[in-house]
Design goal:
mainly alpha, two-stranded antiparallel ribbon, 7 helices
Length: 118
């Protein structure tokens, strides 16, 4: 079944760009990282986390009867896949900031359709 989902559920280049953008924004050294990420994240997610997010989204879409991954699927899956892969700084822990809070801000700050290049 896993092989079937991996081969049959498609991910468009735009959705892949969206996932890449979300992952890049979790990394404090990235130019795209929001100030809160620079202040409160010691280590952002790895490229492998993006691969896992794609796989998770494929399964999510398949369980909803679709053969493609949408931006909404990514938004629905991002917390479960990326939150535990971020290493927060001591400052974040002292201030009670959670990885989920930071990810919500990242998702809200990226307009997926704005990634379309004319």
């Amino acid at each position: 079944m896993q092989h079937h989902v991996a081969k049959r559920v498609m991910v468009s280049p735009l959705v892949i760009s969206y996932i890449l953008e979300l992952c890049l924004r979790t990394r404090p050294e990235s130019q795209q990282a929001p100030e809160a990420i620079r202040d409160f994240v010691a280590v952002g997610v790895s490229p492998r986390a993006g691969e896992h997010l794609i796989a998770y989204c494929k399964g999510f879409a398949f369980l909803r009867g679709r053969d493609y991954v949408s931006f909404e699927d990514v938004d629905a899956c991002v917390m479960q896949v990326l939150a535990h892969r971020m290493i927060l700084s001591d400052a974040a822990i002292l201030e009670g900031i959670r990885a989920q809070d930071l990810l919500q801000n990242i998702v809200a700050s990226v307009a997926p359709y704005a990634l379309v290049k004319p």
